[in-house]
Amino acid sequence: MTARLDEPLRRALGTRSANALEKLGVRTVGELLQHYPRRYGDPGRLTDLGGLALGEHVTIVAQVQHATVRRMRNRPGAILEAVVTDGPRQLSLTFFAKHPGALRYHEDRLTPGRLGLFTGVVGDYRGSRQLAHPDYKIIGMDDDADDAESAVLEASRPIPIYPASASIPSWKIQPAVRTVLDPLREQDVPDPLPESVRTRHGLGTRLQALRDVHEPYDEQQWRRGRDRLRLEEAFVLQAALAVRRARADAEPATARAPRGVDDPGILAAFDASLPFTLTGGQREVGEQVAEDLARSRPMQRLLQGEVGSGKTVVALRAMLQVVDSGGQAAFLAPTEVLAAQHARTLRALLGPLAEGGLLGGAEEGTRVALLTGTLGAAARKEALLDAASGAAGIVVGTHALLSENVQFADLGLVVVDEQHRFGVEQRDALRAKARTSPHLLVMTATPIPRTVAMTVFGDLETSALTEIPAGRAGITTHVVPAANEAWTRRTWERVREEVAAGHRAYVVCARIHPDDPDTADRSTGRGAAGGSDDFDELPDFLLEQGEAEGERPDRVPLRAVLEVAEELRGSAALAGVEIGILHGQMPAADKDAAMSRFASGEVPVLVSTTVVEVGVDVPEATVMVVHDADRFGISQLHQLRGRVGRGTAPGLCLLVSTAAPGTPAATRLDTLARTTDGFELAAVDLELRSEGDVLGAAQSGRASSLRLLRVVKDADVIATARVDATEVVADDPGLASHDALRDAIDEQLDPQREEFLERA
Ligand code: ADP
Ligand code: MG
């Protein structure tokens, strides 16, 4: 960016405006210019007042119907009640003051027939929506242009409506943008879109596009500008990914070709010992992976597959191919519990093949080492030795595997399970542990729609396991209104019935202690007393929802593990049933013990936080009750319920909710109850997160590099940009003659990607 765009707003606009804008995360001229209008008001078309959601910060275009001032009935003071309309519907505005005279100012302006922009938090008064003390602007009044002609002109132009907040309304952002935009010249605004791409699509410069979106004369103009900026975002992302792909392709890797039939190794022995036949998908993906591994450039593959689709076997077969060629594989899991579980699973699947070098072990066997932060000194030393000597063909662990003192004899493959908990740098750190760049297989159970895969994981080749191995009974999901006593009673009866049938039940709560802060985000205790640090935090998007919804006064407190476990122990419905607990603040040994007592059936009901979210596998678990389900995101609930119905008995998931019908939270839960198709859920999830027609406070001012691009809706733009970007990068892989593009990439890629990973 040039100096011009880097200029702090404090200098360009003065402290007052700059401070207000800073609350929206906007600090520099460049950032203000990228604070694009959320939408445009049309003075001839009013905002649909039917779409206003309680608690939301909105900006609307409406017409004043009438306004009256009166004294309050039961208290001193005066009230002005105005009614504005979109035609069929009304919304009331109220202003309070000590004396009627103090309301004269508003009364003079809010005269019938006038059009205005009104902004505030949507409240409820006796069943109807209202804005209390809204900020507003009457169109044609209040601006610097005080002559009639410019008032008329202004009244006919689209009104940019900016993501705003209580600290600064949309119409004060508009003049600020004008102040910084008007003096700019072409050379002040570098354009990441190369001229060749602009010419191909008949697009103007970036500066023109900024003028188009911020100061349009008509709808066509802002649409043109917005489309061009959207393509630019897609292009920069795709160019970044193309650069990454090109860079990875250029790295040398050791080819790990599969053994031939006349020289069978551990993979062949394993295949022969498998108690089930591979699904078609497992075979197909397995072949792709086998080919990738046999090349001398690093595999970069993302394997998606629903929970239970059998990704572990695919990964294990890839690891064995590498072991067969003399190399080692590292298997990274997001938590210690999962790492330990994976090590157990892998050893069980391998049987005698995992006892390489031991008496009674298979001749072609290897060893599976587990390396986590909680190992005792002796066990740790042994695992480190096995990794360094190569005795362990497979090393399973968490982030601990990334620590400097873990050495491998010959690391050939890195498998990352549940990618969304691992950052890009961590992956790179692990890859740095090998002589040549290791092959990489990333696995995720979060289904990723095609365009998201192209956008966020565009530097990885993707494969998917779409079928679930036969013999799974599936799962039914119901929403249980928390206030409905009959349903609640039935919920615990169902739990009791399942337990009586020899099954297990999970009860999931959003926080641990009843006196923890009443926000879902801190509920599971990151950094809490000595707890392990890689455990069970809720993802950031939940935190976001929690905050937005937490502003509402009518929230009931979140249920907590300790409290719910106590209640259930004392309840008649579950009398005589052992009830265990599991959460991230428990010492690792207690967690393991709780998990194995649950798995064995000794304690058939487990009240826990979201620790059970990823990968935990207890086939006898058939029912899951999720408290405060409305505070969780779609993909997390989908992951959670994937814990039940994994065996041959059908699963049941009961989502206990306090969400009012029609709210986004209720819609999320209804969607989950309707479908178990992970791809559909992922798409709905993305849709629900993009903005509605009115401005939501939770949406405004978030520092995201994707401002205009919507990965679900803009599939065409993304595809076009991908073609353009691939071409530009192929011609100039170092982007030597594309300074602006290079700068834009540095700025954009990482935050975007990390943001998705955190949310997913
Ligand atoms: P994921 O990691 O994709 O959630 P897993 O790899 O843990 O799924 O597999 C879930 C369960 O299904 C495991 O118990 C595994 O042994 C079993 N499984 C995997 N592949 C098959 C198959 N082809 N047929 C039957 N069972 C399978
Ligand atoms: Mg798994």
From TrEMBL:
One of its GO terms (molecular function) is DNA binding. Gene3D superfamilies: Nucleic acid-binding proteins, P-loop containing nucleotide triphosphate hydrolases. Residues 513-524 have a biased composition (Basic and acidic residues). GO terms for biological process: DNA repair. InterPro entries: DEAD/DEAH_box_helicase_dom, Helicase_ATP-bd, Helicase_C-like, NA-bd_OB-fold, P-loop_NTPase, RecG/Mfd, RecG_dom3_C, RecG_wedge. Pfam families: DEAD, Helicase_C, RecG_dom3_C, RecG_wedge. It comes from the Bacteria. Residues 292-465 form the Helicase ATP-binding domain. Coiled coil: none annotated. This is Probable DNA 3'-5' helicase RecG. It comes from Cellulosimicrobium arenosum.
